[in-house]
Amino acid sequence: MPKKITRRVLLKRSFGAFLTIFGLSSGGYVYANQIEPSMLETNILEIKHPLIPKDFSGKRIVQFSDTHLGFQYNLSQFKKLINKINSLNPDLIFFTGDLMDEPNRYQQIHKIVPLLQQLKAPLGKYCIFGNHDHGGYGSDIYRNVMETSHFTLLLNESRQIKLKDGSSVFLVGVDDAMLGKPDINLALKHVPFSQFKILLSHAPDLADIATQ
Where are the domains of the chain? Predict the structure, then answer.
């Protein structure tokens, strides 16, 4: 992550299924990672920033992405991923795109929803579109799967996460850059500049734009 990203944290895509575990507190950030067997890579990030509210410090966020179900990734592996995420006891869960490789051709959609519904996070579950979620006329399919699984889909919009002490942080989600219509300005329209923000984007190319 570029050092110049000082007021927003970008959660972006990688290739292959992965998890990112975020612990938050105030001040720079430290990065470490550990690679698990098979196709699951787990990256551990500690994020420190002066705008992080005291009541958000210590919260755990789990991000996962690019499962591409149907393309060298099956439901058995997906179930192990779900169990792994729950074992981490996240406060927030983010899915940042590409759930199925070809949504309109995937024959086991009815088995995905019960697995995603098993994910638990007291501060909520949020998601955005990836290019494969739009591809193959899959936009409505993906939306229905995620919303039925109790995820909030952020499409060029933001959500305020209110904390017990009265403070808050903002989640900002943008559409996919390849097959969607990302609009960062629209997504940030109702977000105060002084608030800590987490930007969910499937495309890393939007990182520089987000810092302008």
Answer: 12-154
Q: Is 58 helix (H, G, I), strand (E, B) or coil?
A: coil
Give residues with Cβ within 8 angstroms of 37, minimum separation 6. none
Do 170 and 191 touch, CB atoms closer than 8 A? yes
pTM of this structure: 0.83
The C-alpha atoms of residue 162 and residue 160 are separated, in whole angstroms, by: 6
d(CA 100, CA 74): 10
Cα(19)–Cα(13) distance, rounded to whole angstroms? 11
CA distances to 99, 162, 182, 209 from 48, rounded to whole Å, are: 30, 19, 27, 22
Supply the pLDDT for residue 20.
57
Dihedral (CA of 122, 126, 132, 133) sign = positive
Find all residues with CB under 8 Å of 11, minimum gap 6, and list them: 20, 63, 94, 96, 198, 199, 200, 201
Give residue-wise pLDDT tens across range 106-131: 999 999 999 999 999 999 999 999 99
